[in-house]
Amino acid sequence: MLLKKQTVWLLTMLSLVVVLSVYYLTAPEENAADMTATEQMEKAENKTESKTESKTESKADTKGENKSEKETAKNTEGSSVTIASGDEFESLRLQIEDERAKLNEELTAKMGNTELSSEERDEAYAKIEQLSETKVKENIIENLIVAMDYNAALVRVDGTDVKVSVKADKQTKTEANNIIRLVRKEVSDAQNVVVDFQPEK
After folding, report:
1. What is the CB neighbour count within 10 angstroms for residue 138?
2. What is the tens place of the pLDDT at every residue in 168-197?
3. Which domain holds residue 112?
4. How far is CA 15 from CA 18, 21, 58, 174, in A?
5. Is 72 a member of any domain?
6. CB under 8 Å to 98, separation ≥6 — which residues?
């Protein structure tokens, strides 16, 4: 009888030791996994911060370079056609987006200003909606132009004025007319559409 009690006691103690050892062996791995996950998240946040900082620095650098390239092209040829660098469209697009983001912030602040009348706040809201619609139209037109076998396109809609810059080696009136027709389909109130062909490098 006494022997049975001792064996039962021994077995329970052994099982308890096994359970505890398994627990301690698996618990540090979970903590380590949690720590590695938090470290990875911190690294990702640091990378995104450094990317945004480098983007703002590169924007400032590319703006200065693009201005100098445009000035040299105007001085040498005496015309308004600019020589496109590899990423000129992208830098111009970023510049336009920055300007619109600032305008959007101002309009949003107007909407939240309770001192202004409801008409003024409604007007600010309408302008914000117009900005987003303009951006969507520009993206659609750019995609349609690229689908016409052009390497790159940049569209700027400003009210009834639309300026289209296209990278292409060949410049024909027929191609320009096709682009103008396409723009007028998408932007019904477009009155002054200018197509600017820029040579590939």
Report:
1. 21
2. 877 888 988 999 999 988 888 888 899 988
3. 84-201
4. 5, 10, 64, 87
5. no
6. 59
